[in-house]
Amino acid sequence: MTKQLTLKVKKEVSRRAGGLCEDCHKAPDWRGLAYHHVKLKQMGGTRRHYTTENVLLLCGKCHSKRHGIKEV
Question: How many domains does the chain have?
Answer without folding.
Answer: 1
